[in-house]
Amino acid sequence: MAKKKDVLKRQFKRHKKVGKAPGTITYMGHREAAETKVTIIEYTDSLHKIHYPGDVGQIVAHKDTPTTSWVNIVGLSDESFIEKVGFHFGLNPLILEDIVNTQQRPKIDEYEDYIFGTFRMVYINDNNELIGEHVAMVLMQNCVLVFQELDYDVFNGVRDRISAKSGRIRTKDTDYLFFALLDSIIDNYFVVLEHISHKIETLEDELYENPTPEVARNIQQLKKEVLKIRQWIFPVKELVGRLIDSENPLISKDTKFFLRDALDHSYEINESLQIYREMAMSLMEMYMSNMSNKMNEVMKVLTIMSSIFIPLTFIAGIYGMNFAHMPELHWKYGYFLIWGIMIVVFIGMVFFFKKKNWL
Amino acid sequence: MAKKKDVLKRQFKRHKKVGKAPGTITYMGHREAAETKVTIIEYTDSLHKIHYPGDVGQIVAHKDTPTTSWVNIVGLSDESFIEKVGFHFGLNPLILEDIVNTQQRPKIDEYEDYIFGTFRMVYINDNNELIGEHVAMVLMQNCVLVFQELDYDVFNGVRDRISAKSGRIRTKDTDYLFFALLDSIIDNYFVVLEHISHKIETLEDELYENPTPEVARNIQQLKKEVLKIRQWIFPVKELVGRLIDSENPLISKDTKFFLRDALDHSYEINESLQIYREMAMSLMEMYMSNMSNKMNEVMKVLTIMSSIFIPLTFIAGIYGMNFAHMPELHWKYGYFLIWGIMIVVFIGMVFFFKKKNWL
Amino acid sequence: MAKKKDVLKRQFKRHKKVGKAPGTITYMGHREAAETKVTIIEYTDSLHKIHYPGDVGQIVAHKDTPTTSWVNIVGLSDESFIEKVGFHFGLNPLILEDIVNTQQRPKIDEYEDYIFGTFRMVYINDNNELIGEHVAMVLMQNCVLVFQELDYDVFNGVRDRISAKSGRIRTKDTDYLFFALLDSIIDNYFVVLEHISHKIETLEDELYENPTPEVARNIQQLKKEVLKIRQWIFPVKELVGRLIDSENPLISKDTKFFLRDALDHSYEINESLQIYREMAMSLMEMYMSNMSNKMNEVMKVLTIMSSIFIPLTFIAGIYGMNFAHMPELHWKYGYFLIWGIMIVVFIGMVFFFKKKNWL
Amino acid sequence: MAKKKDVLKRQFKRHKKVGKAPGTITYMGHREAAETKVTIIEYTDSLHKIHYPGDVGQIVAHKDTPTTSWVNIVGLSDESFIEKVGFHFGLNPLILEDIVNTQQRPKIDEYEDYIFGTFRMVYINDNNELIGEHVAMVLMQNCVLVFQELDYDVFNGVRDRISAKSGRIRTKDTDYLFFALLDSIIDNYFVVLEHISHKIETLEDELYENPTPEVARNIQQLKKEVLKIRQWIFPVKELVGRLIDSENPLISKDTKFFLRDALDHSYEINESLQIYREMAMSLMEMYMSNMSNKMNEVMKVLTIMSSIFIPLTFIAGIYGMNFAHMPELHWKYGYFLIWGIMIVVFIGMVFFFKKKNWL
Amino acid sequence: MAKKKDVLKRQFKRHKKVGKAPGTITYMGHREAAETKVTIIEYTDSLHKIHYPGDVGQIVAHKDTPTTSWVNIVGLSDESFIEKVGFHFGLNPLILEDIVNTQQRPKIDEYEDYIFGTFRMVYINDNNELIGEHVAMVLMQNCVLVFQELDYDVFNGVRDRISAKSGRIRTKDTDYLFFALLDSIIDNYFVVLEHISHKIETLEDELYENPTPEVARNIQQLKKEVLKIRQWIFPVKELVGRLIDSENPLISKDTKFFLRDALDHSYEINESLQIYREMAMSLMEMYMSNMSNKMNEVMKVLTIMSSIFIPLTFIAGIYGMNFAHMPELHWKYGYFLIWGIMIVVFIGMVFFFKKKNWL
Ligand SMILES: [Mg+2]
Ligand SMILES: [Mg+2]
Ligand SMILES: [Mg+2]
Ligand SMILES: [Mg+2]
Ligand SMILES: [Mg+2]
Ligand SMILES: [Mg+2]
Ligand SMILES: [Mg+2]
Ligand SMILES: [Mg+2]
Ligand SMILES: [Mg+2]
Ligand SMILES: [Mg+2]
Ligand SMILES: [Mg+2]
Ligand SMILES: [Mg+2]
Ligand SMILES: [Mg+2]
Ligand SMILES: [Mg+2]
Ligand SMILES: [Mg+2]
Ligand SMILES: [Mg+2]
Ligand SMILES: [Mg+2]
Ligand SMILES: [Mg+2]
Ligand SMILES: [Mg+2]
Ligand SMILES: [Mg+2]
Ligand SMILES: [Mg+2]
Ligand SMILES: [Mg+2]
Ligand SMILES: [Mg+2]
Ligand SMILES: [Mg+2]
Ligand SMILES: [Mg+2]
Ligand SMILES: [Mg+2]
Ligand SMILES: [Mg+2]
Ligand SMILES: [Mg+2]
Ligand SMILES: [Mg+2]
Ligand SMILES: [Mg+2]
Ligand SMILES: [Mg+2]
């Protein structure tokens, strides 16, 4: 339970920003979120190097070199560091604000020299927690800057393809790298969808087997997760579409071709999410119908027991009366006669309930 | 039950692709799904031949011959074979990826030399299972490539019309063949709709006769099926519309005329699915209302039995008390008087319940 | 009940067409649906004749005469006859297919020499059944062809206005006749709406007076009828709009003026159907709330009876015990004291339930 | 109750028109609706006269005078009178039909010499009934014709402003008068919204205090009213928008400025209606939840009473048995011991229910 | 409770305006709402002064001075004062009407010399009440007029940034000030969203712990709040978009850049509100499911108690009968045998209920 609460409650920090000037760089995540780690992967078709720069100078050095550099910055809590990086790479303060705003809605902003985008990297981390991590990416002529909050990411496939000498990515420009990272994020949405789909099936099974209130609570939780994920993922299809329509020379016609494939996937993901949403709502209905069934069963037991024994008890009560003059009491087989009557009543009631299909 | 689970769970394999480069050809279906079978139907107005090619070379030979060739490839698990075919026919790797991706959303992609489309062929197979089979089709100048996962298909009508010497199809070009195949897929959607419609009627009847929890579960299952089919069928109307608006010379004006008829059907199918969706939701409501009715009936029996016998038992209890001084006990007709009172009470209660319409 | 099932189940024949070539003329209605009857009303401002042609030749003769001819063909089961008519009037095979396809969705297709439309003629027939009859109409230079499935139609008003010498229709062209027929169909939708509205009011009244499960079933049936009618009527507003925007010289500016009035009505009908749909859904909610009320009433009776007599019976039970030493039993007024206590308990319970407003 | 039925049932007369030619002037309201009353307010900035014309001639005289004349015609049942007025003012028969069709959907039609509009004047009349009165207005160069069904209207504010010498309206043209009347209708929608809002609050309060079935029925009634009002008001925002976009010289740029203000209000009204609709639906949910609460309370009383006294009665029953050998019966304090046990059981049960929070 | 009613009921005054001429300045808020307070903040990059003008003349003096002046007017009940200010600043009467109409829907109107906008400033005031305060702003060449109803506002951040010598705002024009104020309003929406989100979580927790009818009522209240807030906030995103697309020279390209950031936030807020709306609806469902669970629990207790003790009491009743000939009564161990039987029945029932998982 704790896990999900954490995930769902991350957005409670916007009040920090009220009244501040736009462009004020305010980190919205967990302050304790550790030091900043920077890794640079530099490559051409014939070159592949990994750098761990010691200061901002070593980072900025990659800005204008003709090689392709992927600057990966993990940890957004050091606002002054982000500001310095932004300043040297010539980024607009509004963008810097969006980079450290971990609640930023996915967006694409085009500037003259670079294209800026933020997305939600949604994944199941090593502790099996569902995480919606804010990631910001800047596409420039010779490098791609990636800012992410947490160490974990979904980019290892891209790293592998870069380090594999023969990969197509090594022969391509920064726009293809930008696409490849975005594609990894989108591909991973399918994994999250499988996770949701699996959760729905599990809840559905539990529902039929043992519909405890806990199950209802989990259904509720699932609905909130689906809503949240939809909010994170929904804007992506429009953003990818805008990249495809963009006339910015930073994105080649060839890369747009690949982006169209990603657009395709974005549509599919949205449709699936829509279906999962409807399924999640159906689960609650099923839960209510199961409750109703249980109640019916309970009521039948009560009704059968009461309807059989209450009349019998009444008969016994009659002959427990102490009237001086009760002829039956003195009949020789009165007691046995009464037993006979009671057995007949019993059988009659059982037949009645059989006929009603309650037994 | 098993059947439907199978159908609904087919989409759980996307994680296989995370991190792979776009254009990586990864089969997403059942690996065990058997060897690849290729059949080529070659025809002109005066010619009709069926080939079973032994290798890729014999397939590719049909690429540029002036006859019309329908290359039908069944089985998508042999990725290297698909790759070879794709290479020789000059297909883009992204397309090859979509061909073997059995979870691919229906789509149309136009290239310079060919038009690529994937669709869901939805049908009830010989085991009475509802199948949503991925099928990919490529329209080229002189041939139509069809890639499908399973042996069963809905194209026998087209095969018959080709083999019938006098059919219109024999006088037409590949674009008409492409249309005819698509038309068969769409026509078959009507059969699936009839299946759904029949299921709704059956469930509705069961609902009134014997609303077991099993029925509720089947309604739930039906809702999921309708959602799934909608996801499969929904994009088709837009795709057909795009073909009609396309300026690609591969599609003649004459064929567009026929496509408009298919478009018509696509709209009708979508509207009907929408109705079935609403009906399926209504079924659950009916189920709940039936539960409520049953409960009311159970409660009435309990209430009638209790309300009649509890007061009577109380009266009997009174005269079962052992007080030394209870004058009634010694009256000569006390016992019979009490019987009289009890009968009056009984009749009174029966009248009361009659008046309330509970009896 | 039988009636409605009939109406709702008419669409179960689409599988007949799977695999057939487009343009194959396959009647989808009731095969037994009798012979074909043709009537021709021919008129100008000064002329009015009714013909009952014996063969196709006598029908086709009206194609090019300068008078206005309304060719009314009842019965669509004779496919070869329809084909012959179509051939002589120069109609496209795809249109002939739509004429005999009694499940065809309402549509308008414009051709060079004629405009083709199919609609649903919805009416309550003489047996008080709700019928959604397929009707196809072709507007040509000098005649209007009307194909309908059943004898009954809603065109008697138009026939009267034609036979009335002074009617505006006699001075107008075929496009106005086409409009007048369409207008009759649309006007009749209002009658069906009144029928639906009346049904809703009736069900609502039944709901409050005697909410039997039968009522729930009728509500369900009503919802299905509304859904079906909406599917039939919904496309009409778009079709009329398209006729108005058409640049086809067959439709005069003057007639478009009248079509705008029909468009107006189409919008109104759609809005009303939407409202009836919401009302029908509300009925089910009301039904459930009434069930809940009934249940509450039942439970209150049970609770009141039980709560009053169970404690009293307990008191009686106490003094029915056979202990050797029970002082109260030997008190002179013990029995009357106990009666007193029981009366006090009884009154107390009654007060309690009064206070709770359950009595 | 009677009142609302009246309002909601007014639309049941459309069948009167089936088969009639378009442009046939058929009054759809209450035939008995009294004689026609005509009032003409004529004004310029320096002139203000009220006329009660005796015949159509005296009315038509105002058509071409340079003063501004507001011709107000109350009562639409005299079809031949309306026809005569229409003829002399040069109105299209289709318009005359719409004027007397009291079920006409709100619409605007522009003609060369005049602009025609019908609206719903929704108000609470002097008998506190909610009325949706059909009103038709024609804007001409020198006069505005207003046709209304009932005597009551919402135009008194406009009459006052005209009679007040200094009002802006006296200096303006007919288009401003047309706007002022429309504005009065729209302003009055706010009053109806307040009425609905008040009804919702009242029902909500009743719901919590005393949720009788009557309340459920009133909620249902409210939902129908909101649906109806929405149908009446919904088209207005589009109509006003169309007037603003119109290039008709009858409407000055200055008046469009005021129309924009009315457009503003139309949007607001639609949004509020949407909210009221959602609130009305919520009321029913609240009702059901209250029913559920009541039921729970009833059941708790039953369960508590039964669970406490049934075991006690059993204990008393044990010692009411007549076995020859029952040692406890002969114990000196057996009776008191049993009382002790029963008190312990009683206290135990009370504690149990306290713990469950049922007491 | 009182608080929310207040907030929700503020719109009940529109009837005041019915029949008045448009442009009539009618204050719609609380008449008692105190005197008008005016503050002027005047600044350039090198200057910063705060004025408390004594009369309208001192206010209007700022209209044409080259410094940037923020004229903040608190209190809208003095209609003649507002009229005077409006007259001297050259504002259109329709605008003055909107300024004092505290129910005005958010809007933007562009005039030649100024841009007028009204918004809802939504905040939690010092008494922890949710307030939706009407605020109107006029952007002119050299000053920004702000009209607000209540003393409290969300602009203190802007005031601080102006008074801080080095802030960006000091170097910018009135359009930036206008943006900064709007941005403060929008930023504060996030705070309100957090409040709503917090309320949802609180209600959800209460729901599981103690689902009293009070909780249901609070959920209902929450739904109404979300609806209301949505109505207030919804138009903002379109208004900001319109400012961005405006070609009015009053808004510089640079400021549009910042407005785009605000647009971004508007979208995010709308999406979140949509989610909160769905969550609020889910809460009610959860409540109903919890009610159902409680009921099930109650019924189980009743059924278990009744089913166990009713048969036992029957057995005791049997041997409480007074028949002369009842052999068992005279068996030596008859009494103990009966106890044995009763214990067996008891254990049997307990096992039965264990097996049903009710214990
Ligand atoms: Mg989350
Ligand atoms: Mg969430
Ligand atoms: Mg989540
Ligand atoms: Mg894909
Ligand atoms: Mg998918
Ligand atoms: Mg999926
Ligand atoms: Mg499914
Ligand atoms: Mg499915
Ligand atoms: Mg399926
Ligand atoms: Mg259909
Ligand atoms: Mg169908
Ligand atoms: Mg068709
Ligand atoms: Mg139907
Ligand atoms: Mg129907
Ligand atoms: Mg029907
Ligand atoms: Mg209507
Ligand atoms: Mg109607
Ligand atoms: Mg329910
Ligand atoms: Mg009309
Ligand atoms: Mg209504
Ligand atoms: Mg109404
Ligand atoms: Mg009304
Ligand atoms: Mg409002
Ligand atoms: Mg309002
Ligand atoms: Mg509020
Ligand atoms: Mg306004
Ligand atoms: Mg609210
Ligand atoms: Mg509110
Ligand atoms: Mg933002
Ligand atoms: Mg957010
Ligand atoms: Mg948020």
Plain-language structure description:
The structure is a homopentamer of 359-residue chains. Chain A is of the alpha+beta class. Chain A has two domains: 2-290, 2-Layer Sandwich (Beta Polymerase, domain 2); 298-355, Magnesium transport protein CorA, transmembrane region (Methane Monooxygenase Hydroxylase, Chain G, domain 1). Chain A has helices at 2-8, 56-60, 79-89, 93-100, 156-163, 174-209, 213-245, 253-318, 327-330, 334-355, and strands at residues 37-43, 48-51, 68-74, 107-110, 115-124, 130-139, 143-148. In chain A, strands 2-1-3-7-6-5-4 form a seven-stranded mixed sheet, sandwiched between helices. In chain A, a hairpin with a 5-residue loop joins strand 5 (115-124) and strand 6 (130-139). In chain A, helix 6 (174-209) packs parallel to helix 8 (253-318) and helix 8 (253-318) runs antiparallel to helix 10. Chain A starts with a helix and ends with a helix. At the A-E interface, helix 7, helix 8, helix 9 and helix 10 of A face helix 5, helix 6 and helix 8 of E. Chains A, B, C, D, E: Mediates influx of magnesium ions. Chains A, B, C, D, E: It is a multi-pass membrane protein. Chains A, B, C, D, E: This is Magnesium transport protein CorA. Chains A, B, C, D, E: It holds the Pfam family CorA. Chains A, B, C, D, E: It comes from Maribacter polysiphoniae.
